[in-house]
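TA notes. Do not distribute before section.
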Amino acid sequence: MTRLTTTECRDFLTHGSRTAKLATVRKDGRPHVAPVWFVLDRDDVVFMTLESSLKGKILQRDPRVMISVDDETFPYGFVLVEGVANVERPTHADLLHWARRIAARYVPSDSVDSTAERNSVGGELLVRVSLSKVSGMRGVAA
């Protein structure tokens, strides 16, 4: 098992179409984990969620988060990001920009525009989590 450098963590996070698992804390203290599609923007993990979703409500109340992204192929690896979410209510144009960037990572190219349009509706939040506290390991099973 080898610890990843910050640069290696960034490379890991941008590789392929790995989905992040976002951990938050419900009002009563129970954990909540949800998958999110994301991209990196400089030193931020960026994703979108509906304001009315459970994760959207939690993030607006308590922005503390933990993000886990893993490599599900042998010999396995993971990156963890701990931080505070910056929740924004961007303009439609900004939402569309980010929805396109995120969709381009996860859906076939002929579906990017329709996916971006569908995901840039009113009530969507843009969420940023800084990579200021990031760690990772590779070769977990080696």
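Switch to the second chain here.
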Amino acid sequence: MDRTRKAARDYLLESWLELSDAIETHPELRKLLFDSVTGLPTTPLLFPRIRALLAERGEVALLCLNVVRYSKIEEIYGWKVFDEVMREVSQALENITGSYLRDSDIVAELMISGNSFVIVLSPPRNTLHMEQGALAKLARRVEASVAADLEATIPANLYRKFGCYVGSAVIKADPKMRLERLLHEALESALAESSTREEKDALERKARLAEIIERGEIRTLVHPVIKLDDMSVIGYEALSRGPEGGEFERPDKLFKVAYDSDLVMQLERLCRKQAIQTATALQPDRLMFLNIEPESIGDPELRDAMFTSILADASITPDRIVLEITERTAIIDFPTFRSTLEYLRALGFSVAVDDAGAGFGSLQVLAEVRPEWLKIDISLVRGVDSDDVRRELMHSLVMFAERMDVKLVAEGIETEAELAALREIGVAYGQGFLFSRPVLPFPDDADLALGF
């Protein structure tokens, strides 16, 4: 533990000692020790329950749920969104009370407006002491249940920014030590275990992803890009998927772990290779939109003869490839980024910016990249037929595209009303489930079953 963290925890312990004495002297202070965001008590208010259990049983078992990487939430979305996440975590714990947790278990926060939750467990029913194996099993169940609850209730882009890990500890009665110090050491142990869980989890995910990359277990689905005036197919977006039915099937999980594990370049190369091989099944007049992570723009393979040879082996010329810049992460070095794109354009590739209207600094990306294609995020397309603000924004994008000679693609079209509104506004191209879901390519893409 570094000196800063140790000093902070020692200060916390001294604060508890002072609070404990103050609460006994002034009981009215209790109401100040409830967190205003979640309504939960904070750790000093657990002392009477823990003291009673130690006197009765000689030990107390507890769990500590630690929200890790939470600073990303505040950094990107602000403290109000962070508070909402903490409320959702609190609700997720309440949802398992009566199942994994008993009604008599006490849930609290480590401190006001903190990122860790403490659960004081009621005594086991059939044994005098809590068995370590049973405690560890309970911790994993709580961890998995809370994670599943949060994934179902919190937007995916927000859920991916943090994680929840549960550690456990047992407090043993020791008449030589103050209760506050016993609890402090137990919580420190439980937090350390949750950190170890996070590190182990990260290593396991990295190993699984590395194995997927080594075995080439990436599938490519295609999603048609439609010319809206005559409903013809002008090309396809290549969508990468991991092994079917596994945790890495979805691209957001694939690339989140890739970024966490420093495997973005390797994963991107495999996805690119598979997508280009898939393009050989398409008709020769079709475009292929390839998603490119900003970090991968500097990949030498994207610039040198190796990439050109991959295209040659697939009998595809660069003018059929649209490099679609995704915005999962911010672009840091725009001058280098722009110069690389110009080199790729000189080879014959064109460039698209994905998710316009969402992501990191979309307006700056437009100004710096100056794409040939602009994909409008689903958040602006959804309800464009009935929302005046979205309609006006779409009008503005159409005028911008006309002046800058940029082709607009509306993503996520799902209703006939949205399609009619986009046609009326003047958006030329579109994608969405109204036309087709992503599918495996057929030998002849004319046979792709579209929904119109």
